[in-house]
Q: What sequence folds into this?
């Protein structure tokens, strides 16, 4: 007996090393296996928690893992690689861990015979090494530049004389290297600048330029006199000096630069003034200037938005010589103060005047700083005056306000000019009149409509449906391409089907393939296996044939997708249900047992998908009528907030909740949009009559099972095995399905509504609703009335 | 017989011939009033890597400003088809090289254009700089922080002009902002948004991280196609059994060569931010990561990467599918926010911006920079900074932890493993080139 005890103790002691430090008392083998099953670990906290025991079990855990590495050709190493690399990463945060993981890796390397595996382990070991093992060869230094550079580095902040020497030298690259060195090391003191400037006169033109640019880069205000002089002296150095003065700034520099406008250094001076660090004052100069100088000043005032000269420039628009330039400059300087004057000019222009759009631009700019409704007030005042001459010129400005009122005004006017203006509106309300015009063949209106829909339509189904419709209206290949690419932003089944159909059109095939690829990777909707497979194979061929950089990845992604797709198997009844007498209403293949809306309800890959199809809002009903029955099905939400329902003993085409016996609610009541939901509206409720016990739905994309049992007036609803409704519909309303006083308010039902169909003896079973985003499968029914 | 301008010059300028570097400025300048540029005044370019970006229409060009004179690729098929295309397009007989070192040392080449996968960028840039060539390098600048440092040093030391090829800091619509960077820079500089600023690079603000650029584990071992010199394709990268997915078009999914969307799009997205924030000379001091565990070889996805600067400014990257809910600003300051499409909480912001001075002038014409030796707008220095920000994120992702960075030493603080990723060994003799 005692001996046995010793043996047990000895065994415990022996195994202690394998149980080392693991809070869960696992052996090293188990720790290794557990981590292998987890990798790649998704979360940082799990990463630390799960790998810690593994690291603490090193070196044994590491050698054990390393022994699992197989030759690369067997293609099985990924999980081991993740695990070892993970351990190495974690071990790097703690020296004690690092030391034992290092030990493990060293042992493993010694034991490893496969060279790829060995290399992998050596790389991992390197990550835990304290020393930087990378040495570079001495930099080669035979050439004059390297020598000069090394000398500068050696001199450090005493390199002034060397810099001056390089400046005087003939070698351009050496000179620039020295100047750059001085700039980067912050050596360009006023003294150094002075020393260099003293040599200026004796320098070559090229060196002069180099020095002047350098003075500018270092903002040497002390050298402004030299720079100003260089400007006057002209030639290439003048251009360099102008750039430098532009960087340094100051009133004196501004004067020098303004003087250069209109001359041979106009372009340089203009650029320098655009980035001139201080605000400019161009009023006097603009008044005094003539010729090219005046033209440049106008451009400059516009580029820098000199609102102080707005009135001067407005006046100048009527000038014979400078009028056109002034008008072009106007948008850059105007404020709301000039609106009325500009509208005045715009509406009296001769119809042959070439500058109408320039005035419109100026007007838009003047309006721009105002809030939208203020803009509308100011412009509609003129645009809506029927007596206003040439008022159509104001339509684009009206549209640019983007207000509802502007859309209404333009729609009311309704002529071609108004329609063109509507096409530029950012207000989604403009879509309606644009579509109407598009249907009459106006392709510009169509594309404006497409632009609005793709940027403003919030619902994906809406975007998809409208873009599909627009595609049908488009005539030009370019427009078709545009719409096809926009469809990628509305990843629905319908959009995919449309893109698929264009894959054989050689003008559209690449765009269609790109769209189809985007949709198939993004969509949450099911797409028929056969169609998807065929289309994706075509896409692969199209991408292969093009072969741009990313097309290789596109082919990869599509192959991956294809390998994940499988045709859905048909559903068969269980033996038990068969014995009980259940019949299958939907086995995955067709809706032959149903009537009604087969556009919104589509059998795809073994499921009935509820897809959004605009304009078709009716329901799907069983062909047969049922009295007492057990109705079983599975449902799956694909999007948050889905709403549907099962109609019971209902005629077709009515609201089953009232004119049928009842509607059993199907609703993603967990979605925040249903925060204010009443208890008789939650999932499973006999709508408005018997509230259901509130369940928590499974995550989107997962299947739930539901059974609805109806016998006489009794209804039972069971979801995933839990009974959530079990009640008598007649008792629930105390026999009063309608208000006894004949009014619309029924005090006996929980929703206080009349339910005239509640006591129907028989009727269809139906799926009620037309919102996309859910699917049903395995729909079967047991007709209890038959048995009797 | 066509006179080779460089052999002419080498003979003509005997003293200069001793230099391994030929300053092209000593070459004859014939200028003239018409648009004709004398062959001796034309710049020349050699292109390394003609499979992907190198064959794109914007790079596979040759004109009188800059003639394409040499091509190089380790895939014979790519090389042959590029040579044929060049012949067809310009009737030019280009030099075709298999080994990039031959192209770099070709005396006819002024500018070395590096369009290879990123694991080559460091070595090739340094080799080109040491050979006295100016450099046009595709993004991302380098695959490691250490290599970036080497490139920066080599370019400075050899007095070279370097251009990193992303451009959003000086031109083109900046993705979801719907505008160039310029007005944003003006707005930030004006102080109207307050300080510190938070920048969010996310699907919600109009940027896509291309999460499909990921690698695969357990790759099948495939025979190397006979046209590909796989050993030279790998070069400094560890030798791993060949699979087509590692190479052309899909190399971005492997840490050995690149780092997925983060590394490859990162520099496009982050470089302009660094400019907007005025942090061309700074580095963040911290990078935090929220991601699933990464495979040591195949790049995976991530949820969030947040960089913090010493002054509290932040750059927040949100992974695809992990974007903030609702309306999120691209730039957020204590006094104002800017959303996607340059929507701003400051009323009449456009007019206010128009009244502000433009940002300081920069040199955005690369060929002009080569001629004047002035620094290009996106160069070895600010390019190194933005590449380092990207690489800090890649390090944090690979190690799955928060890292602290010392801007002075440009190393991580108290983290050996992270510093092992700053400097990574190179296979064989390749490390000796850099």
A:
């Amino acid at each position: 007996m005692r001996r046995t005890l010793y043996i047990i103790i000895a065994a415990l002691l022996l195994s202690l090393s394998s149980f080392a430090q693991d809070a869960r008392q696992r052996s090293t083998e188990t720790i290794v296996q557990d981590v292998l099953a987890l990798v790649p670990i998704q979360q940082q906290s799990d990463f630390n928690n799960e790998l810690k025991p593994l690291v603490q079990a090193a070196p044994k855990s590491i050698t054990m893992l390393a022994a699992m590495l197989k030759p690369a050709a067997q293609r099985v190493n990924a999980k081991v690689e993740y695990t070892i690399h993970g351990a190495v990463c974690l071990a790097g945060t703690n020296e004690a861990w690092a030391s034992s993981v290092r030990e493990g890796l060293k042992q493993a390397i010694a034991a490893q015979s496969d060279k790829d595996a060995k290399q992998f382990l050596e790389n991992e070991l390197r990550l835990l090494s304290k020393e930087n093992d990378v040495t570079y060869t001495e930099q080669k230094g035979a050439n004059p530049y390297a020598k000069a550079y090394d000398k500068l580095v050696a001199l450090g902040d005493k390199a002034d004389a060397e810099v001056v020497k390089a400046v005087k030298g003939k070698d351009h690259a050496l000179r620039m290297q020295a100047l750059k060195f001085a700039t980067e090391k912050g050596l360009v003191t006023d003294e150094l600048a002075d020393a260099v400037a003293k040599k200026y006169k004796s320098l070559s033109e090229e060196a002069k330029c180099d020095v002047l640019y350098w003075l500018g880069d270092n903002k040497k205000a002390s050298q402004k006199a030299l720079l100003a002089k260089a400007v006057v002296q002209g030639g290439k150095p003048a251009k360099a000096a102008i750039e430098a003065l532009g960087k340094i700034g100051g009133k004196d520099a501004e004067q020098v630069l303004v003087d250069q406008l209109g001359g041979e250094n106009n372009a340089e001076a203009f650029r320098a003034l655009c980035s001139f660090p201080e605000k400019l004052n161009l009023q006097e100069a603009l008044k005094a200037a003539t010729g090219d100088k005046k033209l440049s000043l106008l451009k400059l005032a516009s580029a820098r938005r000199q609102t102080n000269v707005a009135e001067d420039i407005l006046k100048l628009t009527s000038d014979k010589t400078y009028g056109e330039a002034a008008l072009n400059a106007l948008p850059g300087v105007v404020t709301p103060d000039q609106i009325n004057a500009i509208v005045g000019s715009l509406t009296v222009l001769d119809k042959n005047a070439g500058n109408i759009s320039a005035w419109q631009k100026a007007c838009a700019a003047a309006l721009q700083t105002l809030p939208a409704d203020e803009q509308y007030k100011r412009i509609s005042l003129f645009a809506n005056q029927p007596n206003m001459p040439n008022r159509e010129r104001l339509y684009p400005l009206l549209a640019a306000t983007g207000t509802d009122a502007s859309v209404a005004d333009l729609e009311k006017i309704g002529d071609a000019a108004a329609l063109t203006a509507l096409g530029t509106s950012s207000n989604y309300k403009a879509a309606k009149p644009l579509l109407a015009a598009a249907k009459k063949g106006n392709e510009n209106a169509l594309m404006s409509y497409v632009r609005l829909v793709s940027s403003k339509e919030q619902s994906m189904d809406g975007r998809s449906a409208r873009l599909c419709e627009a595609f049908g209206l488009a005539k030009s290949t370019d427009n078709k391409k545009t719409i096809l690419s926009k469809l990628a932003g509305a990843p629905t089944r319908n959009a995919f089907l449309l893109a698929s159909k264009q894959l054989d059109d050689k003008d559209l095939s690449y765009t269609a393939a790109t769209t189809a690829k985007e949709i198939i990777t993004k969509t949450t909707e099911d797409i028929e296996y056969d169609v998807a497979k065929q289309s994706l194979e075509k896409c692969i061929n199209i991408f292969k044939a093009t072969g741009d950089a990313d097309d290789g990845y596109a082919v990869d992604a599509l192959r991956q997708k294809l390998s994940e797709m499988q045709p859905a198997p048909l559903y068969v009844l269980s033996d038990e249900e068969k014995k009980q007498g259940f019949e299958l209403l939907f086995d995955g293949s067709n809706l032959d047992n149903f009537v009604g809306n087969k556009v919104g309800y589509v059998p795809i890959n073994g499921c009935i998908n509820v897809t959004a199809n605009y304009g078709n809002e009716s329901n799907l009903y069983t062909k047969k009528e049922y009295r007492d029955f057990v109705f079983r099905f599975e449902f799956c939400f694909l999007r948050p907030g889905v709403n549907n329902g099962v109609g019971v003993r209902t005629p077709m085409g009515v609201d089953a909740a009232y004119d049928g016996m009842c509607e059993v609610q199907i609703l993603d009541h967990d979605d925040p949009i249903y925060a204010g939901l009443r208890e008789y509206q939650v999932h499973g409720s006999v709508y408005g009559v018997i509230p259901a016990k509130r369940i928590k739905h499974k995550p989107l994309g997962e299947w739930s099972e539901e059974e609805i049992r109806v016998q006489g007036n009794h209804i039972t609803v069971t979801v995933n095995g839990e009974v959530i409704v079990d009640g008598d519909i007649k008792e629930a309303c105390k026999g009063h399905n309608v208000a006894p006083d004949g009014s619309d308010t029924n005090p006996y039902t929980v929703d206080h509504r009349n339910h005239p169909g509640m006591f129907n003896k028989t009727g269809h079973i139906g799926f009620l609703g037309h919102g996309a985003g859910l699917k049903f499968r395995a729909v079967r029914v047991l007709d209890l009335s038959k048995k009797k | 017989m066509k006179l080779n301008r460089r052999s002419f010059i080498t003979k003509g300028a005997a003293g200069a011939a001793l230099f391994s570097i030929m300053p092209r400025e000593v070459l004859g300048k014939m200028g003239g009033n018409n648009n004709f540029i004398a062959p001796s005044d034309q710049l020349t370019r050699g292109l390394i890597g003609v499979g992907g970006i190198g064959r794109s229409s914007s790079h596979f060009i040759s004109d009188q400003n800059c003639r394409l004179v040499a091509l190089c690729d380790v895939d014979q098929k790519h090389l042959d088809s590029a040579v044929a295309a060049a012949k067809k397009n310009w009737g030019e007989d280009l030099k075709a090289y298999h080994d990039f070192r031959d192209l770099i040392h070709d005396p006819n080449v002024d500018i070395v254009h590096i369009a290879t996968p990123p694991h080559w960028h460091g070595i090739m840039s340094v080799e080109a700089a040491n050979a006295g060539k100016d450099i046009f390098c595709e993004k991302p600048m380098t695959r490691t922080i250490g290599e970036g440092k080497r490139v920066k040093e080599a370019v400075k030391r050899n007095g070279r002009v370097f251009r990193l090829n992303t451009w959003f800091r000086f031109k083109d619509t900046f993705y979801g902002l719907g505008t160039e960077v310029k007005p944003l820079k003006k707005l930030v500089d004006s102080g109207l948004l307050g300080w510190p600023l938070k920048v969010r690079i996310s699907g919600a603000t109009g940027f896509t991280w291309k999460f499909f650029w990921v690698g695969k584990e357990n790759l099948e071992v495939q025979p190397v196609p006979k046209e590909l010199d796989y050993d030279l394709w790998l070069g400094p990268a560890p030798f791993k059994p060949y699979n087509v997915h590692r190479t052309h078009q899909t190399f971005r999914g492997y840490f050995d060569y690149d780092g997925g969307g983060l590394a490859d799009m990162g520099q496009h997205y982050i470089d302009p931010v660094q400019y907007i924030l005025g942090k061309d000379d700074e580095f963040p001091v911290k990078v935090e990561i929220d991601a699933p565990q990464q495979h040591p070889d195949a790049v995976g996805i991530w949820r969030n990467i947040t960089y913090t600067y010493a002054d509290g400014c932040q750059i927040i990257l949100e992974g695809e599918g992990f974007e903030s809910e609702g309306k999120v600003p691209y730039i957020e300051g204590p006094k104002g926010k800017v959303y996607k499409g340059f929507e701003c909480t400051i009323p009449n912001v456009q007019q206010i911006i128009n009244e502000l001075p433009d940002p300081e002038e920069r040199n955005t014409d690369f060929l002009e920079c080569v001629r004047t030796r002035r620094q290009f707008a996106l160069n070895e220095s600010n390019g190194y900074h933005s590449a380092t920000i990207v690489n800090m994120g890649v390090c944090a992702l690979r190690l799955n932890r928060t890292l602290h960075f010392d801007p002075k030493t440009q190393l991580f603080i108290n983290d050996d493993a992270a510093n092992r990723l700053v400097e990574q060994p190179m296979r064989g003799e390749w490390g000796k080139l850099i």
